Amino acid sequence: MSSKKKILIVSFQSLTANSGAGMARLGYYLSNILHQRGLLHDFIVYSKGKYTTSFPSSPVSKWSRYVLFALNKANKILRFTPQWFRFTQELIFDYFCAKKIDGSIDILFVTQPYLLRTFKKAKKLGIQVIFIPANPEENFIKNLVTEEKAMLGIDAEDAYTYPARINYFNKSIKYVDKVIGSYPTVYDTYKASDFQGEVVQLTGHLKPDFKPVTIPRRQAGTGTFKVGYLAHTVILKGLQYLLKAWDDLMKQYPELDIQLQIAGAIDESMHGYITKNYLNIKKVKLLGHVANVPDFMKQLDLFVVPSLIDGGPYTALEAAHYGLPVLITENCGSGELLSRNNSGCWIVPIRDSNALEERILFAYNNKETSIDIGMNAKYNLDSYRMDDFIVQLADYLEKL
Q1: 48-52, 98-102, 204-208: which is most confident
Q2: With 60 as the cut, is the pLDDT of residue 199 above it?
C-alpha cells in the first residue's frame, strides 16, 4: 500500500459519546486501530454531533444533521411508509458520501451496501471496495420474507421486499470487490448468492457494551417457569412459530406452571396475524415496550430467539449476559458465539414449531441442566474478546 493512500471507513449510523450506533461501533473501534497504524483516512458517519474522537472522523456532510431533522419532522406530519423513509435516508447518505471519495483513498471500507453513487466513483478512481454486512444477503432475505408472507396470508409491503431498495442493492453490490462475512449466516448467504466478488470469512461478533455483572448460579425454583421473547417483531423474527409451539404445548400439557412473556413492539401486519390466530392462547403475557431490559431478563428462566434469519441478534447476547439459557434458530449468527466451549444455547431449525416446543418442555423438565446452559452462555460471552476480532480485521485490511 502506498504510504500516501489510506483507508476510508463509512458507516450509515451515527457516533455516540464513546462508540457508535449499530455497525458504527465496529467502524469506531476499527478506525482507532487503523489510525494508530497510520492507515486511516477518515471515519464517515451520518451524524456526528459534538462528539470528538482520537482519530479523524466527520459527518457525511455538514448539512446531514439538518436534512435528517427536516425529514423526521416531515415524517411526523406526512407519515411516510417505513420502507420509503428508510430508503430515502440511504439515498441522501449516498449522495453526500460520493462527494467524500477522492484519489487519496486506497480502500473504501463500508458497513452498508446502498451506495451506488459512492461505489461507482470509487471504482473509477481505482479504489478497492470492501463491505462488511450486518445482515445476510438482501435477496436471500427478500425471498425468505416473500415465502413467509405467502404462507401467512400477509401482503403488506416492507423494507425487505421494497423493489426500489432491492434494485439499488443489486446495482450497488456489483461494484464491491470483497464481502467480509463475520457472522456465519452472512458468509453462507453471500457465498450462495450471485455476488461475483470474493466472499471472505472472518468470524467475529460485535459485543454490546454491557456493564459488568456477576450472576451467581441460579437455584432451580418451584415457581412459575418464565420463558421470554424480546424483539421489534416483524415477520422475520419468527414469533409466529414460537406462538404455534406454545399453543401446542398448552393443549398437550395444560397443567404446566409456565408463562411466555412477549416484549417489544409488534409490526401492524404481524399484530393482525397474531390476533387472528392466537388471540386466546393460554399463559401468555404481552408486555409491549420494556424500559428496563436487565430487569426483564433477570426474572426469566429461558430466552427464545425464533428468527427465520438474523445476523447477530443482540437480545441473545443480553440474555447470556444475565446467565439465561438461550433457545435460538440455526439462522442466527449469535448462536455461533454462544455454542462455543460448553454450549450456552440450544440451536433448532427455522420454521420448526415442534423443535421449539420440545426444547421448551425439556428446559422446563430439566431445570438444573437449563441453569448449567445459562451459566455456559455467560461464560462464553464474558470470555469473548471483541478486540481480537477488530485486530484481525485491521490486519486483513493492512495486508490488502
Answers
A1: 98-102
A2: yes
Give CA angle at 379 (202, 21), nearest 5°: 55
Q: How confident is the model at residue 168 (pLDDT cuts 50, 70, 90)?
A: very high
Q: Which residues lie across from 303 on neighbouring strands?
A: 228, 326
User: In which band, very low, low, confident or very high, does the pLDDT at 396 lie, cut at 50, 70 and 90?
Assistant: very high
Question: 205: exposed, middle or buried (C-beta count within 10 Å: 0-12, 13-18, 19+)?
Answer: buried
312 vs 326, higher pLDDT: 326
- Report d(CA 160, CA 145) in Å as an integer: 7
Provide DSSP, 335-382.
HHHHTSSS--EEEE-TT-HHHHHHHHHHHHH-HHHHHHHHHHHHHHHH
293, 320 Cβ separation under 8 angstroms = no
Angle between helices 163-173 and 138-152 (to 10 degrees): 160
Say how far apart CA 129 and CA 123 lie, in whole Å: 8
Give Cβ neighbours of residue 290 (< 8 Å, ≥ 6 apart): 230, 263, 264, 296
Mean pLDDT over residues 42-58, rounded?
A: 89
C-alpha cell at 233: 417483531
- Residue 46, judged by CB atoms within 10 A of its CB (0-12, 13-18, 19+), counts as buried
SS3 125: coil
Q: Given this model, what pLDDT does residue 3 score?
A: 56
In the chain the domains, ranked by start, together with CATH numbers, are 6-207+385-399 (3.40.50.2000), 225-382 (3.40.50.2000)
Q: DSSP assignment of 241-281, as one string?
A: HHHHHHHHHHHH-TT--EEEEEES-B-HHHHHHHHHHHTT-
User: Cα separation of 131 and 116, whole Å?
Assistant: 13
DSSP string, 158-204: -TTT-HHHHHHHHHHHTT-SEEEE-SHHHHHHHHTSS--SEEEE---
Tell me the mean pLDDT in the region 293-302. Answer: 95
Predicted TM-score of the model (pTM)? 0.93
Q: Is the per-residue pLDDT at 122 higher than 80?
A: yes
pLDDT at 117 over 90: yes
| Measured CA distances, 240 to 143, 160, 235, 278 (Å) | 18, 18, 8, 9
Task: Please give the Cα distance from 175 to 170 (Å, whole number).
Answer: 10
